[in-house]
Amino acid sequence: MAKVKAAHQENVRAQQVYAKLLTELADFPISFKLAGKSYKGFNDEFAVSVNRKPLEGFKETATVTAAHASGLVVTVHTAFYPQYAAYEWTAWFKNTSSENIGPLADVNGADVLLEGYNPVLRYLLGDGSADGAEAPFKPHVITMTSHMALDFTCTSGRATEGNFPYYNLEHGDGGTLLIVGWPSQWRARFSYTYGNMHFTAGQEKVNAILYPGEQIRAPLMVFIVYDGRDDLRVSNLWRRWYIDCNMRKIDNKMFEPVVSGGTSWIYEEMIKATDENQIAAIKTYAENGIQLDYWWMDAGWYYKRDGETLDVWLPTGYWHVDKHRFPSEFADIADYGATVGTKMLLWFEPEVVRMELDELTEGAVKREWLVGSHREDFGKSGVPEWYLVDFGNAEFRKYFFERTTSIIDKGKIALYRQDYGIYPLPIWEKADSPDRIGMTENLYNQGYLEFWDALIERYPNMMIDSCASGGRRNDLESMRRSVPLHKTDADYSNFAVKHSMHQSLYNWLPYYGTPVTGPNYANPNDKYAIRSAFIPWIAFGFDVRKDNVDWNFVAGLVNEWKQFNHLFYEDYYPLLPWSRSEQDWAGWQFINSDTGEGVVQLFRREENEEAQKTIKLHGLDAKAKYELRDLDRGVTFASGKELMEKGYLAALPEPRSSAVVLIRQV
């Protein structure tokens, strides 16, 4: 059996759909209203042209330009991925006239009809979801009936909060993956009637005049077509396209698995951190045989204002390093880290000001850069009631780019971490005038992506970490530029919830991170806890001031992880039903079907009463023989046919225990 990839007939079908998009422009599947008139596609009121470019790398591209007599020019950037049965587009709307035009309203970045009976919609809840913060990324499956409609949006303006804009729609004899790539308040609607699914998606609210020269954009829309209704295969079709065609390369290769360390749990983020104690902490790991790839420095390294040292990390808005605590501005930490092979990660949160306006003195964020500062009733808004800095303001972007790059350069920072701990939607809405609904948000998001692109251009081999109170802004536009190293603010010491998140997320986001535990966890030498963090990025937070860490034990577990961490980009299969109950087992498998190398990770949770479980594996060659080496319990051999049909008998005699089983074709 080979790695999962799109079949020839799937690629042909996707190519036919894409070709139709570019030839039947009157029916191009976007829709909007202009000055009260509805449009779907580009009728004879538009002068339309198509500029195609040949295949480059994984994709071929084309740009559709549609000019309306009013001066509105719609530009649609499209792409087709011939080996992945995937295509995409993003629509931009620009006023090229010398007068205001519009209003432009009800903009659907996709307005698509999909044929096929018996539709089933598969999706995840987002972080901080409607089921409660203890259940982020819970999977849902809904069988739709005729005249049924489902509406989705995120909550409070962060893209993956509440809901997750990645959908698998089964319809007819196959299905379509549908992705809404928008960093803020998106909407999606699935409406089914007698064999026809109507799918629309866009920014939730747009009803605005456009000023001369001004443009807004719709979300990135992605579609992957597939045959059959095998959700495990479809998940791996997505993973292969996501990995090959979307994830940023660092030093011309995939971003590698990482072991990181930090002192957030013991120094109140960075409030009590110094050059000296950070170097001492890194040294403790190095001298005890733990090779850290990155050192994680989080919030609280800055002044409050005018050189005033913080007593809590929250007062953001004055982005200057506290030289009382970090006289080298991190350079000494980075220099020592370089001697032991450890790079530096540093936290920023440019979008949130948690100080009063009179505290924004020279060198801080300016009042006029705050969203809504033009209004007479300007003040705190949103929940929590903090100020939101406007990424739509070019002057602010220039200021923060210069501040950030200065800190990165002086401190020799190798990974930029951006947090976003605010609910922005009510602030954007308050800032809009009645004839400009949705504009503040749209321009803001254009600026946010432009800022990240500028950072990437300046530092092409520096990864970005996308954080928003955990995993609340992990839309596809953000993920094309970053990885989510802190995927939730849920309790990382609740291992059943952690397993459930990992099982869900691997289907959509192959690379993400986790702390081993939450703060104040009593046992640093907990195999179950450390193995529960065996994912692409592991973050240790030991109290290095104490002598209670069995470093040889920890180093042994890190070496276990290193034996199989190269498999995280291979095909993925959940092996047991999704659950966050302590009464269940959890587990999954990664397999390179071309080489026969893989791994199974299993967890018998705390209240489970089953000492053994038979688990059917995936992606094996039925005719081949395999060695399965349980790193705790020895080696067994079986054929691929036996392992896939009868299953592998896993034994975990004690509750709250785990297994790592390495697979090798022999």
Number of domains: 3
CATH architecture classification name of the largest domain: Alpha-Beta Barrel
CATH superfamily of the largest domain: Glycosidases
Rounded mean pLDDT score = 96
CATH top level class name of the largest domain: Alpha Beta
Count helical runs. Answer: 12
- Low-confidence regions: none
Major beta sheet, specifics?
10 strands, antiparallel
- Percent helix: 10-25%
- The computed structural class is alpha+beta
Q: Tell the overall outline.
A: globular
Calculate the terminal CA-CA distance, rounded to whole Å. 15 Å
Number of strands: 38
Strand content: 25-35%
Radius of gyration: 26 Å
Assign the CATH topology of the largest domain: TIM Barrel
Layout of secondary structure:
Layout: H1 8-23, E1 31-34, E2 37-40, E3 46-56, E4 59-68, E5 72-81, E6 86-95, E7 101-108, E8 110-115, E9 120-124, E10 139-143, E11 148-153, E12 166-171, E13 174-181, E14 186-193, E15 196-203, E16 207-210, E17 215-217, E18 220-227, H2 231-245, E19 249-250, E20 253-254, E21 258-262, H3 275-287, E22 294-297, H4 331-339, E23 343-348, E24 352-353, E25 387-388, H5 394-411, E26 415-418, H6 425-431, E27 436-437, H7 439-458, E28 463-466, H8 476-479, H9 495-505, E29 513-515, H10 527-531, E30 537-540, H11 551-564, E31 571-574, E32 585-592, E33 597-604, E34 612-615, E35 625-630, E36 634-639, H12 640-645, E37 648-651, E38 657-665
Parallel strand pairs: 21-22, 21-30, 22-23, 23-26, 26-28, 29-30
Antiparallel strand pairs: 1-2, 1-7, 3-4, 4-5, 5-6, 6-17, 6-18, 7-16, 8-15, 9-10, 9-12, 11-14, 12-13, 13-18, 14-15, 16-27, 19-20, 24-25, 31-32, 32-33, 33-38, 34-37, 35-36, 35-38
Helix pairs in contact: 3-4, 5-7
